[in-house]
Design goal:
Blueprint (H helix, E strand, L loop, with lengths): L2 H11 L9 H40 L2 E5 L11 E2 L2 H8 L4 E15 L4 E9 L6 H5 L1 E4 L12 E5 H6 L7 E7 L3 E12 L4 H4 L2 E5 H8 L5 E2 L1 E6 L5 H12 L10 E5 H4 L1 H39 L1 H9 L4 H37 L6 H4 L10 H23 L7 H4 L4
Parallel strand pairs: 4-9, 6-8
Antiparallel strand pairs: 1-11, 1-12, 2-10, 3-4, 3-7, 3-11, 5-8, 7-8
Helix pairs in contact: 1-12, 2-10, 2-12, 2-14, 10-14, 12-14
Protein name: ABC transporter permease
Pfam families: FtsX, MacB_PCD
Family: Belongs to the ABC-4 integral membrane protein family. LolC/E subfamily.
Length: 414
């Protein structure tokens, strides 16, 4: 065994009265490391979880990539493009594309006896992936909607239902203004709640056929097509690949296709989510600084306490580098124990919150009812490696104090 590591291990394990290292110094160092690492794990888990939850809700409403009409402004009152079976098959052939689905939208108003509310009626077909809405469905069902037959059924959000005092099974009067006012009576067959108010207060889901008829569109015309991809990290790459083939190409009515991904369609939200990364770095730097400061303080106390031992080792021929390694190895043992408890605290918080949702949030403000958490093994390992490396680097400076200790002077303290 390496001499420096052997001596450090003996000091660390020594339990004889009067020969133990100062317990307050050791305790302060370990608590600092444990709390610092625990806070870093919790902060990263919560912020990554929050970003993932918000992103998944946006994607749930609008998929990863949309192909629509180039002339359409960023509005829910879209202009049509033709999306036929051949185009659907061609889009499905892209390696990163997992699912393809058509959609149409129509701006309208819900009117009850006491109130009215603006909304967007979104029509979907039988190929629509309803996994997202099934996950957030509170009452009723999410029907198998059609692109050829209108059932006059609709799925509405809980927030809209509460505002308008509606319940499952109620029939609602909706009005749509184009060249004239058109009315439709729709039956509520499902109520969902995502807590993402920007969309919950807006979208009603119904048949693709109904929305296309309200828009007076020709057969095959829709607002666009939504694409779900396999790997979000390849969003930009996949968007540009599809755009290179589709952008600017006209359909049979002369409308040109335009490809945009979810981040391009919602730039404000994703810029806001990107700012959260700055918060992570601020927390990491502060926590590493706090943990490092406690370790430096502890090491200085231990070096001063072991001055006589340093003098003896030097008188026996040990050089400064060897003795410095003794205290650095001792620090590694302390850091390791502190990191162990820090990991336990951080992981305990993750599992408790994941399974019980113990810590609640105001969904009107934070878009979710409980504190979201996410666990990434690579981020977890990187945090541990970074905390260990940063702590050791901060201890290199204080360890030079050993070079200032002279054997003749230090042994007198024995």
């Amino acid at each position: 065994m390496n001499l420096s590591r052997f001596i450090a291990l003996r000091i660390y394990r020594n339990s004889e009265p009067g020969k133990q290292v100062s317990r307050p110094a050791v305790l302060i160092a370990m608590v600092g490391i444990a709390l610092g690492l625990a806070v870093m794990i919790i902060a990263v888990s919560v912020i990554v979880g929050f970003k993932s939850e918000v992103r998944d809700k946006i994607v749930g409403f609008s998929a990863h990539i949309q192909i629509g009409n180039l002339d359409a402004a960023r509005s829910y009152e879209t202009r049509p493009v033709v999306v036929g079976d051949s185009m659907m098959a061609a889009l499905s052939d892209y390696p990163e594309v997992e699912h393809v689905q058509r959609y149409s939208t129509k701006l309208g108003i819900i009117k009850t006896a006491d109130a009215f509310q603006g909304m967007v009626l979104k029509g979907v077909g039988q190929e629509y992936d309803s996994t997202f809405f099934h996950r957030h469905l509170l009452e009723g069902e999410f029907p198998q909607f059609s692109d050829s037959v209108s059932s006059n059924r609709v799925v509405i959000s809980k927030s809209l239902a509460s505002k308008l005092q509606l319940k499952l099974g109620d029939k609602i009067d909706t009005y749509f203004i184009q060249d004239d006012v058109r009315a439709r009576r729709l039956k509520i067959v499902g109520i969902y709640q995502t807590n993402f108010s920007e969309y919950d207060n807006l979208f009603l889901i119904t048949d693709l056929c109904l929305v296309n008829r309200l828009n007076n569109w020709e057969p095959g015309q829709v607002s666009g097509v939504e694409l779900e991809i396999r790997d979000y990290d390849k969003l930009e790459e996949t968007t540009y690949e599809i755009a290179a083939d589709a952008d600017g190409n006209p359909d049979r009515y002369g409308a040109e296709y335009c490809v945009r991904n979810v981040e391009q369609l919602n730039p404000q939200i994703f810029v806001w989510l990107g700012i959260l990364d700055v918060n992570i770095w601020v927390i990491l730097i502060l926590m590493i600084g706090v943990a490092g400061f406690t370790m430096v303080s502890g090491l200085l106390i231990i070096i001063i306490e072991r001055t006589s031992m340093i003098g003896v080792l030097k008188s026996l021929g040990a050089n400064n580098f060897t003795i410095r390694k003794v205290f650095l190895w001792f620090s590694v043992f302390l850091i390791g124990k502190g990191m162990f408890w820090g990991n336990m605290i951080g992981l305990a918080f993750y599992f408790v919150q994941r399974w019980s949702g113990l810590f609640k949030l105001d969904p009107e403000t934070y878009y979710m009812a409980t504190v979201p958490v996410s666990f990434n093994i690579w981020l977890f390992l990187l945090l541990n490696a970074g905390a260990l490396l940063a702590s050791l680097l901060m201890l290199l400076g204080p360890s030079f104090l050993i070079t200032r200790i002279h054997p003749a002077t230090s042994i007198r303290y024995e």
